[in-house]
Amino acid sequence: MSMDNETLSQFLDTLDSFVRERLIPHEAEVAEADAIPPSLVGEIRDMGLFGMAIPEEYGGLGLTMSEEVAAAFVLGQTSPAFRSLIGTNNGIGSQGIVIDGTPEQKETYLPRLATGELIASFALTEPDAGSDAGSLKTSARRDGDHFVINGTKRYITNAPHAGLFTVFARTDPGSTSSAGVSAFLVEAGTPGLSLGARDKKMGQKGSHTCDVIFDDCRVPASAIIGGREGQGFKTAMKVLDRGRLHISAVCVGAAERLIRDSLAYAMERKQFGGPLADKQLVQAMLADSKAEAYAARCMIEETARRRDAGRKITTEAACCKMFASEMVGRVADRAVQIFGGAGYVEDYGIERFYRDVRLFRIYEGTTQIQQVVIARNMVAEAQA
Ligand code: COS
User: Fold this and answer.
1) Enclosing H/E stretch for 123
2) d(CA 146, CA 39)
3) How far apart are the CA of 133 and the centre of ligand 1, in A?
4) Could you give the CA distance from residue 53 to residue 92 in angstroms, rounded to a whole number?
5) Who is most buried in 70, 122, 155, 379, counting CB within 10 A?
6) Pocket of ligand 1, candidates 233, 362, 377: which has the most ligand atoms within 8 Å of its Cβ, to mutate?
7) What's the 222 CA to ligand 1 centre distance in angstroms?
8) For residue 92, which of 244, 319, 211 has the smallest C-alpha distance?
């Protein structure tokens, strides 16, 4: 759907009020308890946020990419744990089905993903296959009209809550690279699928990851996304192109929140006879953060427009992910510096954001992988 301007601005205003009035006040509690209160999960569900990126015909809001990044700019303004709760259903957990799924797969899963009744996870990473995703070892051996999956997936976001996993496994035993990988839709509760203990993370408390273990887990051949073997890696890459742009927008939201908090603190805190905000060295930090967050916002809006116009955005999404995730790291570092001692203790939440945003430079492709993607595409285009 492309919302008319009035509907979009109403949606974003409602989301903004929700973030300020309902989510921000619960940030410290969520971090402390390492859990989002069920009542808040219900409110998030009622707002339709699990289905932002799922087409309207399957019960979602069907936002365009431009609309989705506008929503992510707003959601990014609060603890990433809230965004993470709905992140997989809107992104890596659902988009394989949206982009490459069969009509039956869409019909079976998308309506429940859109409401949040079903939580989706994306199981690509393994103990020995992270950045080199194409080298994954999880196998799916054909057995009649079924496949038998064996292997371990690692750091899988929302796995402890997931009802559906998109699992990448090697269906061609003779292959060692990205060819020969297929994407399977595996439901929680399938015999042979089990979960490891929750990871103890540096930040993003309230968002959970764990291992997903497959031990002779038998699934029908109809569970392959799109029904075709050997297409899984490409599906993963298409999903990640989109996911990287969404994460970039979340980075901008977090940066804008940190800048707002830093400015408010600098205006209120007095040293050397006046507010910190009057000191040019503090102004330099505020100005650098403002300009960098604005640059990232513009890149992301432009890339989203290009995607909505049907253009391939692999290079641009990688540029956005690299720049925005590094940018929010610098902004968070400056925020700690502006707050000084107050930035290093828990009370103001700045140190929490500093730890939370560190993940953005790692997941859905590290900064170094984004550099590889950008440069490889530059060379390929120059050679074409
Ligand atoms: N869209 C569609 N197809 C794509 C694609 C994209 N964005 N990127 C690659 N492909 C295709 C290629 O065209 C190629 O197809 P052919 O074999 O038909 O030519 C195939 O996929 C393999 O691509 P490539 O050779 O580039 O794969 P590599 O194994 O060299 O890996 C990187 C490429 C490093 C970019 C990939 O492994 C990657 O993104 N790694 C990071 C993984 C990641 O983000 N992990 C986070 C986990 S999810 S939280």
Assistant:
1) strand 120-123
2) 40
3) 8
4) 11
5) 122
6) 233
7) 24
8) 244
For residue 267, give both structure tokens: 């205006």
Tokens for 217?
């887990």
Q: What is the pLDDT of residue 3?
A: 79
Within 10 angstroms of residue 239's Cβ, the number of other Cβ atoms is: 26
Structure-token match 């309207």, residue found:
56
Token pair, residue 142, equals 């054909």
If we measure between CA atoms, which residue out of 327, 316, 312 comes closest to residue 361? 327
**Nearest CA owner, ligand 1 atom 25:** 178
Backbone phi, psi, residue 194, to 5°: -140, 165
Q: How far is CA 20 from the centre of its chain?
A: 21
Indicate which atom in ligand 1 lies nearest the CA of residue 135. 29
Per-residue confidence (pLDDT) for residue 4, from 0 to 100: 87
C-alpha 187, offset from chain centre: 21
Low-confidence ranges of the chain (pLDDT < 70): 1-2
- Amino acid code (one letter) for 300: I
126, 165, 177, 234, best to mutate for ligand 1 pocket (most atoms within 8 Å of CB)? 234
Exposed e or buried b per residue across 298-336, where buried means at least 16 C-beta atoms within 10 angstroms of its C-beta: ebbbebbebbeeeeebbbbbbbbbbbbbbbbbbbbbbbb
The structure tokens listed for 29 are 């509690």
**Enzyme catalytic residues:** 364
User: Is residue 306 within 8 Å of 69, Cβ to Cβ?
Assistant: no
At 1 the pLDDT is 57
Distances in Å between the Cα of 231 and the Cα atoms of 133, 146, 170, 181, 238 are 14, 17, 10, 7, 11
